[in-house]
Write a structure and sequence with these properties.
8 helices; 188 residues; three-stranded antiparallel sheet
Length: 188
Amino acid sequence: MKPSEEVVNSIRDSWEEDNDAFGRVYEAVLAISEFTRHHEIAEVARCAPNTAKKHLKRLRQMGIVEFRHTGGALMFRRNDAYLEWREVNQIAEDHSLQEIVERVRELEAKEAELKEEFGVEGPDAASVYRSDSDRPTHELIEAVGTWNGIQRDIRLYEAARQLQQNDGRLISAFVETHTNDQTSSESQ
């Protein structure tokens, strides 16, 4: 059942009261995966187009949105790398190093099962139209989707592990120092 227009307007009014224009633009653009004109984002964020443009440019400087200039139109979308970075940080905050390592092991075991079942190295090479499988096609499609999710989770949990092991950095200070020392000695 669809909520009444009165309920929707009440929620929108509450959202507008609880957020300033920057917050509304931020929340609106996080829901946008395709390049969208700034004035359309302004409509969603319930602010003036110039206000949205100003905040979108600031969000771009922060790495939260991507920008494209197409024939006079300013277009923006969320930066998925930013969202992944937030997710990696959240995993690192919420889990101990041991929990992260154990989760990666579990995910790798599930991935190994899928590699064996499909006989290929990754979900992109997996065929869901297999005559040698007892599983119906819709289950194979679901398994490939799960496999894609497993690979993404392994990548995120590995990044979170690196963050925890390297004092909040993805590259250890040892590697950076060693690389810098090597570059210095080569230039001499």
